[in-house]
Amino acid sequence: MNKKIIIGIIIILVIIVLAICGYFLMENKNEDNNTTNDNASNVVTDDSTTDENANTESNIKKTLVVYFSAQVHTEEVAQKIANNLNADIFEIVPVNEYISEDLDWTDDNSRVTREHEDESLRNIELVSTTVENWEDYDTVLIGYPIWWGIAAWPVNTFVAANNFSGKTVIPARRTSFLF
User: Fold this and answer.
1) How far apart are CA 96 and CA 123, in angstroms?
2) How many CB atoms lie within 10 A of CB 171?
3) Rounded CA separation 9/16 (Å)
4) pLDDT tens digit string along 32-47?
5) Residue 172, H or E segment
6) CA angle at residue 137 from 13 to 71, to 5 degrees?
């Protein structure tokens, strides 16, 4: 098979996996909403006290889509997923953004090639690693391109800077970058 066919098949498989993940997240979200609504209707209150926790936002599970996109491909998918899941979104942005010439993996002098060859260059400084209300999210989807078989390096910086304890993390990688 030629390279274009293989890339096409991989892209289709990634889209299918993302669609399945999105479907299951929506199902879980709907079940959680039904459970929350059922519980809220069973709360007995009198005039002097109310159970404010039954309907507060802090009890609602929230989803965050985090993504790094050196080009627009991953960003487009992340936006669609966030819209479909009614999720918040956070973009991983390097201080020194990647331009087209940086991404030319066939050029031995390009930025990504130099970073691939020298791991010490992969600690990419980000504009921000802080997600507002991070503690409110119980599910985090992380979208990123694959560079040389691993996550694009800016994603590593974001992951290392945050505590994912108690969160469900779903990696959503784009494998159209086969270098």
Assistant:
1) 12
2) 13
3) 11
4) 444 444 444 333 334 4
5) strand 168-174
6) 45
